Amino acid sequence: MRMSEDEVAGLVRSRWGELLAEVGDGAVERYAEGVPVPRRAFAAAGALGLQAFALEADAVTWGRVLEEIGYLCADPAFATVVSIHTGIAGLLRATGDEHLADAYAVPISRGECLPALAFSEGTDLLSMRTELTASGPDFRLTGRKGFITGGLLADVFLTYAATGQGDLAACLVAADDDGVEVEPAHAAGFRTAGAASVTFEDVRIPAARVLAPADGLSHAQQYLNARRVVIASFTTGQIRRLLEGTVARLRETVRYGQPLMDLPNVQAAVGRMYIAVEASRAIVHRALSRLDAGTGDPVFDPVVSAAKHHVTEQALAALNEAFRVLGGHAYFGDPRYGMFLREVHGLLAGAGTQDLLEINLGMCAATCAARKGGNPT
Ligand SMILES: Cc1cc2nc3c(=O)[nH]c(=O)nc-3n(C[C@H](O)[C@H](O)[C@H](O)COP(=O)(O)OP(=O)(O)OC[C@H]3O[C@@H](n4cnc5c(N)ncnc54)[C@H](O)[C@@H]3O)c2cc1C
């Protein structure tokens, strides 16, 4: 039977609460210096069964776990990075390939091997310059990828490359393979997520590490589709955290003899933040339920994309309310508000830009409406 919201909250606190508090403790200092979450945090999470839990849980339960992690952990990068690890492990396990499972998915699930997605290279999807070419029984990989979340921490990259036949292939590259060079990226936000770029210079890729020799685009889209609802899940928890932090501050800030929280305009702002939280939870839950029921489209599910889009916009709206009612405190007094502001702006582009999601959703909605033949107006 599926766990209730309260049961999930209790589980996360009892099993991983201490670790999340530890990771959160150093977040502000790490953020200022651009130092990633320490590798040992992922190993500790693995020892406590977090990543393995993700691989066994249904989508709704894992989504709720991520919401709680987003809510409890003061370092927003932890949920971001650990969920990339579990997403890639899930993809590897789904191949049914024993070598990929034993060599990568199992160590990832223990926090002993850290993966990252190296997809983007500052081109459109049809113009990727990274190339994978056959060379005897193996392949050779040459190119450069950027904007890689968790890239500085990564032991292995899931990457995509043109095959020369107008197609993309998916393969795994080890960070210590000859010809691989990882460099830090200077990111506007997610500064504890170890952002990096990676260069592949004639890297030998054994055939066993080629996950998808063709149609890598669909492969990547499946990963990104699942990624969208994961982002929406932990961001919902982070909006809850923002709401509670804002209320705590408003209660203790007195102006002209009364706490700010007692002023009706401030109450209305907090009310709008509350609506943002509940609306986010509702759409995320619906998207996750579709995945569990098997009714969602694994490549581009409209509800999943709507959830990522909606939660991102709700997070921006909630931040706007918080910055208005907290006065200078949010700007000067507590760096965590600025951190979240920067992270959420990253979601405007990450896992599909908001604009492109809108275009695709518009096309989906039009097709769906035409198929039904109805005219609700
Ligand atoms: C915080 C963050 C984390 C990320 N993590 C990773 C990661 O771990 N691994 C990875 O590989 N990548 C990662 N990325 C990269 C991310 O996937 C890309 O930024 C995203 O796909 C957009 O691509 P782009 O940056 O080239 O933007 P562009 O494609 O240049 O888009 C710029 C603008 O043009 C619009 N546009 C583009 N094409 C069209 C079109 N056909 N029609 C209409 N409008 C269009 C877009 O909507 C957008 O408004 C990350 C990005 C961010 C911000």
UniProtKB/TrEMBL annotation:
<dbReference type="InterPro" id="IPR050741">
    <property type="entry name" value="Acyl-CoA_dehydrogenase"/>
</dbReference>
<protein>
    <submittedName>
        <fullName>Acyl-CoA dehydrogenase</fullName>
    </submittedName>
</protein>
<dbReference type="GO" id="GO:0005737">
    <property type="term" value="C:cytoplasm"/>
</dbReference>
<feature type="domain" description="Acyl-CoA dehydrogenase/oxidase C-terminal">
    <location>
        <begin position="215"/>
        <end position="357"/>
    </location>
</feature>
<dbReference type="Pfam" id="PF00441">
    <property type="entry name" value="Acyl-CoA_dh_1"/>
</dbReference>
<dbReference type="GO" id="GO:0033539">
    <property type="term" value="P:fatty acid beta-oxidation using acyl-CoA dehydrogenase"/>
</dbReference>
<dbReference type="InterPro" id="IPR009100">
    <property type="entry name" value="AcylCoA_DH/oxidase_NM_dom_sf"/>
</dbReference>
<dbReference type="GO" id="GO:0003995">
    <property type="term" value="F:acyl-CoA dehydrogenase activity"/>
</dbReference>
<dbReference type="GO" id="GO:0050660">
    <property type="term" value="F:flavin adenine dinucleotide binding"/>
</dbReference>
<keyword id="KW-0274">FAD</keyword>
<feature type="domain" description="Acyl-CoA oxidase/dehydrogenase middle">
    <location>
        <begin position="121"/>
        <end position="203"/>
    </location>
</feature>
<dbReference type="InterPro" id="IPR006091">
    <property type="entry name" value="Acyl-CoA_Oxase/DH_mid-dom"/>
</dbReference>
<dbReference type="InterPro" id="IPR037069">
    <property type="entry name" value="AcylCoA_DH/ox_N_sf"/>
</dbReference>
<dbReference type="InterPro" id="IPR009075">
    <property type="entry name" value="AcylCo_DH/oxidase_C"/>
</dbReference>
<dbReference type="Pfam" id="PF02770">
    <property type="entry name" value="Acyl-CoA_dh_M"/>
</dbReference>
<comment type="similarity">
    <text>Belongs to the acyl-CoA dehydrogenase family.</text>
</comment>
<dbReference type="InterPro" id="IPR046373">
    <property type="entry name" value="Acyl-CoA_Oxase/DH_mid-dom_sf"/>
</dbReference>
<keyword id="KW-0560">Oxidoreductase</keyword>
<keyword id="KW-0285">Flavoprotein</keyword>
<dbReference type="InterPro" id="IPR036250">
    <property type="entry name" value="AcylCo_DH-like_C"/>
</dbReference>
